[in-house]
Amino acid sequence: MPLEPLICSDTATRVSSVxxxxxxxxxxxxxxxxxxxxxxxxxxxxxxHSCPQGTCQWVTLDFPxxxxxxxxxxxxxxxxxxxLCTLEGCKAGEELERISTLYPKDSNAMQxxxxxxxxxxxxxxxxxxxxxxxxxxxxxxxxxLGERL
Length: 149
What we know:
The chain is mainly β.
């Protein structure tokens, strides 16, 4: 089966923070609008005990039904990227489990990653090791590809 984009208007999304709480200009919806002019811009990092530097940002995706993920596509703003992304997922009603660890480059380019094919209803992407001194993350595009089940 050909891979298809899995994020749709029925996918519930959450993010760790938005710069100055300005969702109109920097909110999560901008990761999915296919515009090169808009982005999700996190605020300065909040405390997170599981991240090496004590801070992290994250995105969760609750799909409207079960999906099998195969790829993650992400485009950061250079200087505000993550050098370590942890993917966790689960089926409805279950606890998140680690799926994959990715090592993006500090670049403006679209980056594509093959991930272990996993059936899930929820995906959490944690952005660790931010290249920004304040731990901010800027994402212009986020895509998850695979199959709807």
